[in-house]
Amino acid sequence: MKIKLDENIGRRGIELLQAAGHDVMTVRDQNLQGASDETLFDVWGGEGRVLITLDHDFGEVLRFPPERGAGLVILEPGPRLTPGSLLGRLRDFLALAETRSPFGALWIVEPGRVRVHLRGGD
């Protein structure tokens, strides 16, 4: 899978996804750190990559329709953001991605569950 990581996910997340065989590009790779959500959305939309972020603003599906790109994944690490909780949510994402594709959908990966919003409200 082709993945774009937002700037709020560090090197250990990149390494975990690459070790699972995914093609990972980061916001930093494209010098887009600090870019507006709209700019990032426009760039991501044309790349054919799944965007993985901690930014809940991307959950606004009317503003950022997931079907405009290859999919959106918002990681919700839990009450405290720690490296372990972040890696745990990435592992949860990887486990679900083995059985289904995030293409055109919004996945919100929380501790103990994944909420999936399909394109068009399906």
Descriptive account of the structure:
The protein contains 3 helices and 6 strands; from the N terminus they run βαβαββαββ. The protein is of the alpha/beta class. It has one domain. A 6-stranded mixed β-sheet has the order 2-1-3-4-5-6, covered by helices on one side. Helix 1 (11-19) runs parallel beside helix 3 (83-97). The longest helix has 15 residues, at 83-97.
Question: How would you sum up this structure in a few lines?
Answer:
The protein is an alpha/beta fold and 122 residues long.
What is the average per-residue confidence, as pLDDT, rounded to a whole number? 91
SS-derived structural category: alpha/beta
- Please tally the helical runs, counting DSSP H or I stretches of 4 or more residues: 3
Number of domains: 1
The coarse overall form would be globular
What is the ordering of alpha helices and beta strands?
EHEHEEHEE
Largest sheet: 6 strands, mixed
Across the major sheet, the strand order is 2-1-3-4-5-6
- Estimated share of beta-strand residues: 15-25%
Q: Gap between N and C termini, in Å?
A: 23 Å
What is the count of β-strands? 6
Q: What portion of residues is helical?
A: 25-40%
List the SSEs and their pairings.
Layout: E1 2-5, H1 11-19, E2 23-26, H2 37-45, E3 50-53, E4 72-75, H3 83-97, E5 106-110, E6 113-117
Parallel strand pairs: 1-2, 1-3, 3-4, 4-5
Antiparallel strand pairs: 5-6
Helix pairs in contact: 1-3
Salient structural properties:
6-stranded mixed beta sheet, 122 residues, alpha/beta
